[in-house]
Every structure is written in C-alpha cells, then in structure tokens.
Amino acid sequence: MNKHIVIIGGGLSGLIIAHSLKEQGYSSIKVVEASSRLGGRIYTKKIGRADIELGATWLWKYNTQLISICKELEIELFEQKMEGDALFEAISMNPVQRFQLPPNQEISYRIANGTNKLINKLSNKLGEEIIHLNKKVIEIKYDNTFLIKTSQNMFKGDVVITTIPPKLLVNSVQFIPELAQNLQEIAKKTHTWMQDSIKFSVVFKSPFWRKQGLSGVAFSNVGPYTELYDHCCVTDSGYALMGFITNSLSSLNKEQREQAILQQLTKFFGDVSSEFISYEEKVWKKESLLTVNDGSFIIPHQNNGHPLFHKSLYDGKLIISGSETSPEYGGYMEGAVRSAYYAIEKIKNI
Q1: pLDDT tens-digit profile of 287-300?
Q2: Same domain, 298 and 338
Q3: Which of 37, 75, 184, 315 has minimal CB crowding within 10 Å?
Q4: Which PANTHER family does UniProt cross-reference here (predicted)?
Q5: Of 341, 317, 312, which Cα lies nearest the Cα of 327?
C-alpha cells in the first residue's frame, strides 16, 4: 500500500486504475498526463444545450465492466434514438434512397450529459494532488526503481503503469534499459483506436429530421460523411446530427469540410441552412499526443490485446495497459476498463 505508483496517461484506463487503487488504500498515486485535459479519446464538447461527442460515444449491454463503473459512479445511460426511416446514397448521380431500419436491432447506449461525465466523476474523486497535466513523459529509466522524466520535471516510482497507445509509447518514450526488441516491433505495428477517425457534428435549432419521419441515420458510399446518427441530448433540449467523415478529406481544412458536409446534408434532408447553428469536428490523426504519422497503414485492431503486452517487464514493475492492450474489446471503452482492472490485479502481486 506504500508503493509509489506512477500512471502515465489520464484517459479512461489511467483514471480507473488511479480511482481503484485509491479506494483500496494505496497512499502514493500520481497520474501524469501530457495534455492540458483529461479523457484522452473521450472528448465531449458542449454547444448550447447539446453534448457533442467527438470521441468515444457508444456502449452496449455486453460492455459489462463499463456499465458497472457507470453504476458505481451513478452515471445515467440512455438509448441511442433510432426510430424512423434511414437514408442511403449508393452513388453520387442517383437520388438518396429512403428505407426502413431492420427491427430488433441491437440497442446502443450513450452516457447522459456526455461521455466526459465519466472522466469528470473519476477525476473529482481523485483530487488535484494526484493529477499532473501538461507533463509529457519522454524517458523512463529503471534501476530497481523508476525515474520518469517529463518535458518539465521528474517523477520517481516503484511501479509504473503506462496507458498510452503502444505505438505512441515506443515512438515517443526512451526506455533505459531498452524494451525487448520483439515488444517494440509489435507495438509499432499495433493499431491505435480512433487514429483514422474524423468525427463531426452539426448542431441545429430543432430535430427537423424527426418531423420528416426520419431517424437521423444515414449512410453514403461516396461521402463526405459515411455514417450519420441522431445526436440529440438525453433531455431532447439540444439537437444535433453526428457522424464520420471519410479519411480522404483529412487534407482539407475545417472550412472546406464544413461546406462539404452541409452540402451533403442538404442533399439528404433538404435545405438545412435555416436550422444550422454550429459545425464541430475532430481530426484524430492530427493529434500529436495520439498518433505517429509515419505513413504506415495498420489494419483496424491489428495486434490489439497481443500477449507480449502482458509479459513481465523490469521485474514486473512496468505494466503496459490501455484499451489497445486488452484481450477483450481491445480498442473500445470496454477494453480500456478491462485493461485497467488487469493492471490492478498485477499490482497486487508485485
């Protein structure tokens, strides 16, 4: 209980690890986060009364560990609205087709008032003395104990848990002595969740699509958006549509993508300009604290949960955690939670 524990990364995994250890009575815990904010790939933006998810959004009934932590923190879930017809664009020259969604679809859920509520609840329970923002780890040196060098200062630890994506870890942190070569090679070929995504949302004055008998669900083979969903808040007082933009548009600027999205929305739903309030987006590949832009292509979820991430490192005192390391649901919020609990069990055995 007196071990000095340093957790690298203030996303969902890192915060759950810190919260659980604090609840169990561990007295020296530090969460070291490179960014100016917590949450990692959970990123909720408040626009008026709308809670816009530009990062992780949905969960399902089989996400048992994530649901459990939501219950523990008294966080409300609500069903993703899917009532009404959907729209589909096969080719750009043809009109948009309208069709009924299949009945008895698997229900997906959202977190009421934004996924970031999960992050806020965890961080509030930890307190400011545990969390250290704007501290990018650049070197980890091990000699029975750890010396963690950041862009601004140093931390000492008996145990280190890293929750940042494996590919980013081995490309941005120098280890002394070096990590095993086979682990480095696998990490460099491990897909990072969200790195290929461009998420967007358009906020409106009213949910006009519902008046048309539409669900807000739309698909397009030609883009610029490929998927679209109703994104109104739990109280139905903030109205939005949210979706994914094809990755080929990442080279455009925000204004160009916004114009293309509004044109496509007009094609699908008719004139929307009178209802339009705000356009928001997040191009995750441009986040330097998430991705390594080395030009390589990695298949989604490749090497997520690889056994090498669970091997003993530096006398078992360095633990690699985070969503990509989870054997189950790797690359999702559920994987982030499960990897956190795996890390906690390992700490008990050190």
Answers
A1: 988 989 888 889 99
A2: yes
A3: 315
A4: AMINE OXIDASE, AMINE OXIDASE [FLAVIN-CONTAINING] B
A5: 341
Closest CA to 228 of 211, 253, 246, 248: 246
**With the C-alpha atoms ordered 343, 341, 7, 330, is the resulting torsion angle positive or negative?**
positive
pLDDT for 2 equals 86
237 shares a domain with 179: no
Query: Which tokens is 242 given?
Result: 């949210």
Closest of 310, 303, 297, 227 to residue 264, by C-alpha: 227
- Structural domain including 214 reads 44-114+196-286
Residue type for 35, please? S
For 232-267, how does the pLDDT look when each residue is reduced to its tens digit (9 = 90+)?
999 989 999 999 999 999 999 999 999 999 999 999
Query: Given this model, what pLDDT does residue 18 score?
Result: 98
Same domain, residue pair 80 and 94: yes
Looking at the structure, tell me whether residues 37 and 128 fall in a common domain: yes
Tokens for 350, please give them: 């050190």
Number of domains comprising the chain: 2
